[in-house]
């Protein structure tokens, strides 16, 4: 066995240290391991993945020099720039060591880095190791970022309020208000970042956790745009169903609770690993859920309301009022929840992982995006794939209640559930032998085997 491991060619993966980025990168690791590669993860100390979830991988932690204040600041743009500056030298030292050990552990085929960890490219290229970019968002988000750069060059930014509801020329499904402009940091920092992220530099290919059946025409457009091959091989979790990389402990008691509910009756509610809300939003959401009279499973992440330990800011009397009908937890095994028969809808912030996991299980959505690419995803769910409702206004309990009933009770929701099931089947086709994602994956494996 050890001999076999030694003969494997190695792939080095560099994830960006947040849940929505660690998951797809480790799924890719599981896929490539099953195709005969050894997997080494080089990761920042901050938000380290748990090696015991993947004993088949080798993990190397590198210092990131992020201060305690930076880590808790929520300033993700600042953290991205700091990681790209601080990790470069330790990454180079780690890579040099691994190169020196190639005789023992097998030759390194390539480095696959998250698009936000772009420092990896210059270090690896300097050491003559081929690099591949992993993009964990959609083709639509990528094209939206290019559009934002053009709008800036043409002097349209900052966007006038009067334009916000107008369609973006060349991006027919998006309005100006849906563009993924960052609410964090200064515009200069944001545009500096998207220019780094959009640039392929010397990388040999780009992997996307999306699929042709969701974004065919945009992916065709991007094939023309890039000088290197692109591989849309999503949804990657469907190729790696056992992959697990949760940073928080999953509360599996929710599955026992779901087992007791009737088919399609439960609204699952979660805003992912980063989105924050204020007390008034939490309150409106809580009463809307209670008044909808639908069963719900609600993930309230500790700290989702600034300064909260957990659910102490829920309105008085709320927990008692929902009794058997609602179940509140800190974190769930989300893919298992979405695959459960009892779940009939998902109120989501529309992070891309959550969105593609939901599409893969044929579940309709209530979209309440907070920032960045979530707005693009919400628009695609509601307007292009037509498998969800977009909650656009400020949270208000009556509207929350009405929207939940439209999705979970009304004919309109049933039609969306039907479309969601059809889309699920299309996505399943992409992953099967002969499907587009499967074919792209085969081509990708051939490419990295040829390095
Ligand atoms: N997730 C989970 N349990 C939860 C909530 C979320 O395992 O209770 C996972 C979810 O399956 C997804 C990831 O966390 O893979 C969140 O990524 P996403 O891109 O949806 O949003 P982000 O957290 O990056 O905003």
From TrEMBL:
Pfam families from the UniProt entry: UDPGT
Gene3D superfamilies: Glycogen Phosphorylase B
SUPFAM superfamilies: UDP-Glycosyltransferase/glycogen phosphorylase
Highest taxon above the source species: Eukaryota
InterPro entries, A to Z: UDP_glucos_trans
Keywords for this protein: Glycosyltransferase, Transferase
Claim: Transferase is one of the keywords in the record: yes
Protein name (record): UDP-glucose iridoid glucosyltransferase-like
Family, as annotated: Belongs to the UDP-glycosyltransferase family.
Keyword Transferase found: yes
Species this protein is from: Tripterygium wilfordii
GO molecular-function term, one example from the UniProt record: quercetin 7-O-glucosyltransferase activity
């Amino acid at each position: 066995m050890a001999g076999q491991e030694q003969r494997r060619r190695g792939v080095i993966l560099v994830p960006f240290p947040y849940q929505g980025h660690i998951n797809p990168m480790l799924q890719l690791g599981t896929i490539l391991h099953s195709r005969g590669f050894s997997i080494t993860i080089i990761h920042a100390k901050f938000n380290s993945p748990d090696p015991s979830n993947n004993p088949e991988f080798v993990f190397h932690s590198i210092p990131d020099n992020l201060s305690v204040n930076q880590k808790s600041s929520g300033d993700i743009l600042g953290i991205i720039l700091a990681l790209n500056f601080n990790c470069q030298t330790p990454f180079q030292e780690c890579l040099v060591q691994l190169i020196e050990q190639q005789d023992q552990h097998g030759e390194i085929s390539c480095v696959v880095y998250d698009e936000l960890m772009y420092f990896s490219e210059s270090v690896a290229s300097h050491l003559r190791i081929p690099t591949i970019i992993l993009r964990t968002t959609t083709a639509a988000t990528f094209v939206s970022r290019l559009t934002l750069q053009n709008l800036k060059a043409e002097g349209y930014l900052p966007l006038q309020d009067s334009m916000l509801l107008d369609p973006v020329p060349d991006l027919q499904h998006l309005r100006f208000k849906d563009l993924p402009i960052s609410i964090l940091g200064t515009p200069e920092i944001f545009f500096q970042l998207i220019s780094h992220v959009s640039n392929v530099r010397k990388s040999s290919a780009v992997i996307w956790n999306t699929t042709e059946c969701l974004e065919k025409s945009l992916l065709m457009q991007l094939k023309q745009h890039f000088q290197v091959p692109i591989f849309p091989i999503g949804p990657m979790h469907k190729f790696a169903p056992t992959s697990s990389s949760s940073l928080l402990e999953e509360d599996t008691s929710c599955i026992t609770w779901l087992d007791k509910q009737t088919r399609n009756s439960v609204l699952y509610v979660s805003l992912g690993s980063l989105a924050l809300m204020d007390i008034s939003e939490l309150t409106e959401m809580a009463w809307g859920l209670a008044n909808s009279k639908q069963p719900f499973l609600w993930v309230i992440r500790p700290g989702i309301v600034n300064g909260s330990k957990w659910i102490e800011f829920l309105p008085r009397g709320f927990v008692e009022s929902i009794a058997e009908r609602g179940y509140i937890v800190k974190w769930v095994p989300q893919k298992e929840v979405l695959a459960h028969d009892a779940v009939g809808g998902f109120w989501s912030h529309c992070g891309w992982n959550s969105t593609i996991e939901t599409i893969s299980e044929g579940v309709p959505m209530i979209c309440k995006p907070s920032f960045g690419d979530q707005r693009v995803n919400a628009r695609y769910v509601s307007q292009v794939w037509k498998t969800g409702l977009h909650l656009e206004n400020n949270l208000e309990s009556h509207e929350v209640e009405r929207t939940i009933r439209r999705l979970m009770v009304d004919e309109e929701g049933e039609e969306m559930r039907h479309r969601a099931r059809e889309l699920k089947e299309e996505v399943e086709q992409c992953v099967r032998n002969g499907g587009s994602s499967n074919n792209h994956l085969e081509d990708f494996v051939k490419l990295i085997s040829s390095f």
